[in-house]
Write a structure and sequence with these properties.
Blueprint (H helix, E strand, L loop, with lengths): L1 E5 L10 E7 L9 H6 L3 H6 L11 E5 L8 E8 L4 H18 L4 E5 L9 H15 L18 E5 L5 H23 L7 H15 L2 E5 L1 H7 L2 H7 L7 E7 L9 E5 L1 E5 L19 H16 L5 E10 L11 E3 L5 E3 L7 H16 L3 E6 L3 H7 L4 E5 L2 H14 L3 E3 L17 E2 L7 H10 L7 E5 L5 E2 L9 E2 L4 H11 L10
Helix pairs in contact: 3-4, 4-5, 5-9, 6-9, 8-10, 9-14, 10-13, 12-14
């Protein structure tokens, strides 16, 4: 959809519906008094009625009785102003969704200029994110339906001079999130490792990223045995996609992103229950987030070297599947005792992290993975777990989380947890048992990063939405893309404005 920034009075723009946000218990239309006057006091009337009190999550459509450039006012509640930019995003998304459901195609949004929540340019960028992401629907295999038509355009009304640049960057990032959502929502039959790798290669060619794809033959020659083990049960061979964004003038070691790409996870021989297994098409959400982040980094031309390593495999219970009791020698020589074939994500990430460390000699690494149900038990479906070996990197990611609204919570990495993955017959085992499962999985991954600063994001909870939420319709969320871009932009020194600025 088209997102534009316009100046001038909000009451004069030609749209189907105009979205106006109010805090809880607002008593007058200020700063929208002129808009109120142009609509014969409709805003004042609405604020005085019990139908709208400005509470978070509330919306009220007010048809405009007189002849004006728009047909509806959409009043949205901001709730407590302390909800900040994330509360603003959710309110805007609610308003845009109400406009869409009322059949509107062109919406306008009056951006507050008073700076109470945040600077106007930042609010405009966050609004662009909310509208684009809230407008997303996966309809590739559905018949077109008139009543489900998406919004076509949005006009953001603000006089702030730096708003257009930030809105443009935010729109690029939101577009990358939507692309990641498409990958996640794609049926698993259409995105097996060779197909997903081909999609990544096409994206790289379109955006100017360098790309190398390691197939099963090269993986065998390199000794990517953990990746190969997971893939053995599938008729589709594994892939590992290597991408790099290396803009002219960028110097120093790259930062490297690693994303788990299990294109479908049955659990292998340690098979999962049938109920909910269809959602295992989303077990490549980490890969989707990393690929989309690389796409956005290239489209924004971030002045920073960024690499990506994305291992891809399908975990199936075939005749040659790897088994509980098997021993696997990973890329860096570490031997792994397999106790559970459903602990496959850490297996393919082991080889990917070790390869990334050797191939790129990175300044730091971040991996994203739908790794453990234990993390969902601990943190729920809204928050990802953050673990790692570097305090400075962790603090940077927490700051990016606050900016982007993609929530992280740190979990401990005390050395005592290492004992839980010790094996009697190998260097380590691939599961540490029931207790502290998210942390023992991270301790497993730590064996493959050496002294490289590293952070692990367990996104099993927020990667896939089981119900609609503001700007996150049910299905693949694309969690982590905006977080990574916020972090990359900060790392690049703020040379490129974005949604989190």
């Amino acid at each position: 959809m088209r997102i534009s920034v316009v100046t001038g009075p909000a009451e004069t723009i030609e749209v189907d519906a105009l979205i106006v946000a109010y805090p809880k218990a607002a008593k007058d239309p200020s700063p929208w008094d002129k808009l109120d006057q142009s609509t014969d006091g409709l805003i004042t009337e609405a604020l005085q009625s019990p139908a709208f009190r400005g509470a978070a999550g509330t919306c009220l459509a007010v048809p405009i009785r007189k002849r004006t450039p728009c047909r509806d006012l959409i009043l949205v509640g901001l709730g407590d102003p302390g909800a900040g930019v994330e509360g603003w995003r959710r309110a805007v998304a609610d308003g845009a969704d109400l406009a869409r459901r009322r059949g509107h195609r062109r919406v306008g949004l009056a951006v507050p200029e008073d700076g109470v929540i945040a600077a106007p340019a930042r609010l405009a960028a966050a609004a662009a994110e909310a509208i684009v992401l809230g407008n997303y629907r996966y309809t590739e295999f559905k018949r077109p339906e008139e009543h489900q038509k998406p919004l076509e355009s949005a006009l953001l009304v603000t006089s702030t001079l730096d708003a257009p640049g930030q809105v443009k960057s935010a729109s690029i990032i939101a577009g990358a999130v939507c692309w990641a959502r498409d990958l996640i929502n794609t049926p698993p039959s259409d995105k097996r490792p060779p197909e997903l790798a081909a999609i990544a290669a096409t994206m790289a060619a379109e955006t100017g990223l360098s790309c190398h794809i390691i197939d099963e033959r090269e993986a065998a020659s390199l000794g990517l045995n953990a990746l190969l083990a997971v893939a053995r049960g599938s008729s589709a061979g594994p892939r590992m996609v290597i991408l790099e964004h290396a803009p002219a003038g960028a110097t120093g070691a790259p930062v490297v992103l690693v994303g788990k790409g299990v294109t479908f996870d049955t659990g292998g021989i340690s098979i999962k229950p049938a109920k909910g297994m269809d959602e295992m098409k989303a077990d490549m959400s980490g890969a989707a987030a990393v690929l989309a982040a690389m796409r956005a980094a290239a489209e924004l031309d971030l002045p920073l070297r960024v690499g990506a390593v994305v291992p891809m495999a399908e975990n199936m219970p075939g005749g040659d599947s790897y088994r509980p009791g098997d021993l696997v020698r990973a890329y860096n020589g570490t031997t792994i005792e397999v106790l559970n074939t459903d602990a496959e994500g850490r297996m393919i990430l082991a080889d990917a992290l070790a390869y990334a460390r050797e191939h790129f000699a990175p300044a730091c690494m971040i991996d994203l993975a739908t790794l453990t149900g234990a993390c969902v038990v601990a943190l729920g479906e809204e928050v990802a777990g953050l673990m790692g070996n570097d305090e400075e990197l962790a603090a940077e990611l927490v700051q990016a989380s606050d900016e982007s609204g993609e929530r992280l919570w740190r979990l401990p990495m005390y050395p005592e947890y290492r004992k839980l993955i010790e094996s009697r017959v190998a260097d380590i085992k691939n599961t540490g048992g029931r207790w502290g499962g998210a942390i023992t999985a991270a301790k497993f991954l730590q064996e493959f990063v050496g002294d490289t600063p590293w952070a692990h994001l367990d996104i099993a909870g927020p990667a896939y939405a089981t119900k609609d939420a503001p700007y996150r319709p049910r299905g693949g969320v694309g969690f982590g893309v905006r977080l990574l871009l916020s972090w990359l932009q900060a790392r690049a020194g703020g040379h490129t404005s974005g949604a989190a600025q």
